[in-house]
């Protein structure tokens, strides 16, 4: 049910084609902001131990390797390599999705109009719920990105943002087992919100300033 909140127990995370050549073509969002949002989302998956799938397209011949910053968050995990623009046409990818045992799929991809739209539509057709990470995906123009998001939303996908997913997983600050790691990610990647947390810690509560960023 789409009215059910996302939890680490009911969702899986998918990162599609976050590779240099694909990044070069992104024009709807500042690329550094895009990288920041993707890393925030990936760290949310890591902190909460959410099953995560990494996949790449034509690594050697065109797109380059998946961002090293993203790979570092999931050490030892090999991205599923494909030739098709549509991840859902890869048998290994579809099997990996099924193996998560989750029906709620949080997807982020480059580019939005191709590598997000195609598998999102196919996944929904196969009975999955898709949550499209809008600010961790990028298109070749603002029009292309927005049209792609509208297309999958009309088909039933739910737009989300990276920070929204992180906070939806945490939800209760009494959950101390993830509290420190979540706030470390907030301080590193959440802009003004992170600065507010840092200010409250150091200036209001007297905590020492620290560059420690957690995961």
Question: Can you walk through the features of this model?
Answer:
This protein is of the alpha/beta class and 215 residues long. The protein contains 10 helices and 6 strands. The protein has a 6-stranded parallel β-sheet, sandwiched between helices. Helix 8 packs antiparallel against helix 9 (176-189). The radius of gyration is 17 Å and the shape is globular. The two termini are 31 Å apart. The model has no long low-confidence stretch (mean pLDDT 94).
Portion in beta strands:
5-15%
Query: Count of helices?
Result: 10
Neighbour order of strands in the largest sheet: 3-2-1-4-5-6
Average residue-wise pLDDT: 94
Write down the secondary-structure element order: EHHEHHEHEHEHEHHH
Judged by helices, strands and strand pairing, the structural class is alpha/beta
- Strand count, sense and closure of the main sheet? 6 strands, parallel
Shape descriptor: globular
- What is the straight-line distance between the termini? 31 Å
The radius of gyration computed from the alpha-carbon positions, rounded to a whole number of angstroms, is 17 Å
Low-confidence stretches: none
The counted number of beta strands is: 6
Roughly what percent helix? Answer: 40-55%
């Amino acid at each position: 049910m789409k009215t059910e909140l996302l939890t680490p127990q009911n969702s899986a995370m998918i990162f599609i084609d976050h590779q240099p050549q694909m990044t070069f073509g992104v024009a709807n969002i500042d690329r550094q902001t895009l990288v920041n949002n993707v890393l925030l989302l990936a760290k949310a998956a890591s902190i909460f131990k959410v099953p995560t799938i990494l996949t790449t397209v034509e690594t050697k011949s065109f797109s380059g390797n998946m961002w090293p910053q993203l790979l570092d968050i999931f050490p030892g995990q090999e991205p599923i390599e494909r030739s098709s623009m549509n991840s859902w046409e890869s048998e290994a990818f579809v099997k990996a999705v099924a193996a998560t045992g989750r029906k709620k799929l949080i997807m982020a991809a480059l580019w939005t109009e191709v590598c997000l739209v195609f598998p999102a539509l196919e996944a929904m057709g196969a009975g999955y719920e898709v949550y499209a990470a809008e600010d961790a995906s990028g298109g070749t123009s603002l029009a292309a990105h927005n049209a792609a998001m509208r297309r999958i939303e009309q088909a039933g996908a739910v737009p989300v943002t990276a920070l929204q997913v992180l906070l939806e997983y945490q939800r209760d600050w009494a959950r101390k087992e993830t509290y420190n790691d979540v706030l470390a990610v907030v301080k590193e990647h959440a802009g003004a919100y992170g600065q507010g947390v840092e200010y409250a810690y150091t200036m209001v509560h007297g905590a020492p300033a620290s560059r420690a960023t957690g995961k």
